[in-house]
Write a structure and sequence with these properties.
This protein is mainly alpha-helical and 1280 residues long. Among the domains are: 10-107; 127-244; 285-387; 391-455 and 485-507 and 529-575; 1094-1279, no CATH class. The protein is 69% helix and 2% strand. A hairpin with a 2-residue loop joins β5 (1265-1268) and β6 (1271-1274).
Amino acid sequence: MAAGAAVPCGGHGVRWTLPLRPPLCLACAVETLGDGSASLVRKKHVLSRLQDALAWQALPVVQLLAPDERVCMHLIGTLFGMLHTVEDSGALDLLVEVLVRLVVELKSEQYLCCILNESQKELCKATTMRSSLPTFALLGKLADAIPGFADLLVVEHSNLVDHLLTGLMYPNEGIKAAVCYLYGKLYSSPVGTERLSAHFEERLCSLFLNTLGCAQTKELQVNCLGLLKELLKSDHFVSILMNNSKTEEETENPDFLEGENPLPLVLKKLLLTRDEMLQAASSHCMAAVLVHSPSRYAPAFIHADVPEFLFECLLCKSEVLIWSVYCCLLLLTEERLFFSKCHTVYGIESLVRSLQDVLRMNNVELHKQGLLLFTEILKRQPMEIKLFTNRGVCIEAIDVLMETVNCPVLEVAVEAVRAVAAFLRKDHLSSPPIPYEELQKLLEAALKRCADLSPPQSSKRHAGDLLFSVSQSQPANRNLGRVPQRQCQFLLNTLESFRNACRLAVEFQGDFMAQENAFTAPNSESKDTLSKFSEFLLRICDSLCIPMVMSYLQRAVSLSVVEVFISTLNILFTVVPNMRNKFSKKLASSSFIRLTLELKARFCSVQSNPILNQTCSSFLCNLCLNLYSATEKRRTSQEEQEMSVLLQKGLPQLNYTIAESLLLLSETPEPFSLDQSLCSHQHCFILLLYFAYTLGDRFVPDAELFLAIRNFLLSAQDRGDCPPPHILRAALYLLAVCQDKGKALDLRSLCTIRRILDNLPDLSSVYVHCPLLLKFFLHYPELMGRFGHQVLQLWFSWGDCKQTEAEEPDFDTSDQLNSASPLLPILKSNSSILLILLDLVCSSSVKVAWKMLMTLRTFLERNEDVLVCDLLRSRFLQILQQLLVESSSATLQANSNLPVLLSLLFLVQLRSKGMRELDSTDFKLLHQVSNLCGKCRPRDTGLLQPSLNFLYWNLHQTTPCSQQRAVAVLLSNVSLLELLQKVLECTWLRSPPSGPAYLSSEDALLCSGWLLVASLLLYQHRYNTEVHQTLSLDLTEVLNAVIFRNKKPVLLLVSIMQFLRAALRQNFSSSLLVIAGQNTAQGATQPQPSSLQDAALHPLATQQVFSLVVSLQNLLVQVQLQKDLLLSQAVVACLETLVEYLYVKNQDVALHVASQPWHRFLLFTLLNGGQKSFLQPEVLRLMTLFVRYQSSNIISQKEISQILQEAAEANLAELPEATCCALHHFLCQIQSSHYQVEPVQSGTIQTLLDRLLGQRTTCIKHQDIVCLGSVAVSLSHIGN
């Protein structure tokens, strides 16, 4: 019968036909398999068709066989019988597979029992163990395919297990492999594990280990490892396999291990193979052992040097093997012996290289596992055993961490920053040169990656405000749902990394080799230094770390994040010691005191979260001590120690809200109570408020704080307790800064403060250099009268003590203005403070007195509306009298306060507007200042300059009656006149400057000297005052000073010309002035003029006159270029006076000078200047001069008509006062000189005169005395 016939044959019928291509008759197939005469090829073909039928048409087969149990049993028996008659391996494999599929599809336990019974019989009658191989193979496949088969075999046919032991001892690895496979399936069942437990312990264990250790074929090795994997799921079997019954000493003895050939050595042998699958299975089995108890089983593997070979396996490319090794090594890290045997030192390079290779694979879990292993090694490595002995490996590790931190997968980045935190340890990085630059890049990458995960802050808010954005009514971590857990973990790990970096920087401060790396070229600056790294930490904390955490706190508050963050800030105080104070100020000004207090109140009350409480308390303590060091310039070590003790004891218990703390300030301890906790809490809170407020963090309403501090002081006074100076200083400061928002202190409060302050040995112990505190003391008369002098003394002396060791004492004008500016509004509101300042001038040091005087000077300059002159003049007189009586000439000249005092005195006089009658105080001051000048030398410019200004003012800004008396006082002072003689002589002794002429202090004194002498000449002649001492001058020197000039400053030329005018007006015949003879040497070089002209012009020579005229003309041209109104007025006035003098002495010479053609060219030069108008003071005065002396060749009727027309069209109200005055003189001169003018022009002249007269009556009088540089000049004195 053909097995593959297309039509039914043998009478089986159509129902036995299976719908295959070609169709298969199942009955024929069964007959063919049972036919002993059928060839093996034919039977293999039938088996193959049956395999296909069971694979693709299992249901029809089952439907045919299941109803007929006899047929099923026959087919199963036939197939089972063929297992022991067929020797062809291919046929055997087909038989096993068909039989297994058939039993699986029939789903009947009786067939399994049938197979088990037949197997039992076959194993019992087998003459050789080799014939049992198909049976073992079949049983193994059935156990693999049918879940309950292993339980059935173990429970009802347990005698089969004895045959397995026999097969395992047979020297055939194929049979051993089949047996191990079957054992693996049996032990994978819980029932089998329980039933065969004793079997394994008593009979199988050592046989199995020997089999595994001696296995040569891969099939046996794999099946043994499969069995081992199942066994290692049970802690009991693991204990048996690891021989745990031996003593601990035996277990840790490597010789014992070597002799027993235990499991670690067997697995180590598999690691030595180059088969990655076996290596992976071996390492997986090691991990399966270690996971039960690393502390019990890890030593055996470590003593067997297994870690060394595990690290070697990391250099492969198999992800499965690498994963298994990572897992195994990770478990080994829990045993200290793993590190003490230096396996990590040996394998760290392999691990780093493995991580580099793994990062190129697209396996996130492998990345995470490798980083986890790296982290554990970094964390657990003993400090005494250096992990990175090769700097190159250390750099590679940093590169790996950098790459993983930037990994786009957040889970990998989280593990990476954990590894970074563990990496940043001193013992990992202590081998110079330390890669600071690489560490900076790593930290910056981690912080930036973390910052990228956090949304930006919605607005610029202070730290204290951020905490309030999270509802305080919710538990600590309620809001974490709004922040992904991974993101929170990433932030925490990043902060731990940054904190460890800060600790690292602090630890390296004591290591000289770590501060400056050795491999830096001489005379070159390296970026790899500790100082650069420390500055980087501080900078990136400010720019990146703090904003990032603040952004996170806007959304949620994690206690672990807060604790790490606050502790990091605390460490940063010591990272860059010279920046500690600046960093502390920035933290305090950013509301970190407020933030920390709120954290303590919210999470640390009722003794909860002690670690966070201690961290916050330590941070606040260090912050306050740093701020004390930064802000208190008069600090003492004793006070700092007391403050430190107070904060350390009090802050951990200060866990109240702001409102509760304010109420606490008003509480009074129970009488006779020994508990000082309330007092300690009050003092701590006041200190915190003080340091917060000094940096601008005013987080308590001012009115409430003002009242609380007031109550605190009253309570302290009531119980007779005086707070320490540093607490009292803070309390007074808080009162001062809040006084504008609170009610004024009542008399009781003021008396309390006064009594407390009276008990202090020194007010400076509670003084704070703050404008508001100064205002506080000066605002209340009760405090100002008692402490005003001391507070002002401290205010101005603060600059002397504020210098630190790193600062050079340098008191300049900016310091003076800074000291003055806060005091000026206070002075304006209470002018009696001025007297206190003047009292302090005499008793203070040089610098302090200088600043006080500069303050008064600034006040007088800026507050002209305050009438304090009378108040100050009498006090000035007392000070000058005291100085002159107590001081000699030498001490006066050495007194650096006196120049400023005199400048201030002059400024007080300058405040008087218009003419003023001098009173007795003024004359006494005049007498004292003139006496003071007589005691000076010409080089004492600091004293003489303000003194001569003062004398000059008294001559020009007073009434004629007072003026006459003032001139008499000055001319009676012989020493003053002798000084003026010396000052004027210095004019000829000074060498001409090499550069541009500028007004030095010496030149300024010369200007004041010449102006004062010119004034004395003028008024002595006017009032015919008695002269007790004459002044002698060489006229040639005076004339040469104007003629040749030699780059003299403009103001000095003006002053000398003013003297020359005064001398010319008196025809050189003043009783005060003696004109010396002409210089014969110079006269010998000059051509001799006619004796008649020289005699007429005596003491002037004709040549000198002409030279002086030319010089004055040239000066006018210079005026046109420089636009100097004062010089132009002085030159024109000098020219006018000179022509007047010549007209008296010799009219011909005068008319000759007035009609020189050069004057017309001079006029055109002036008219062609910037204004191009006749209405200029110098032009009008020159025109007046030419009209007066009828210089028709200089000025014609045409020019006069142009002037009249321009004046008639001009708005006289807008013209300067000097121009109006010059125009008035010009018009009057035309009327009086009988110039031929038309009637219309005469009317125009009269109209203009009337308008000018009305203009002069309504015009505002301007200040006559002005200060040019440091020289006082009377404009009327120069211009008239």
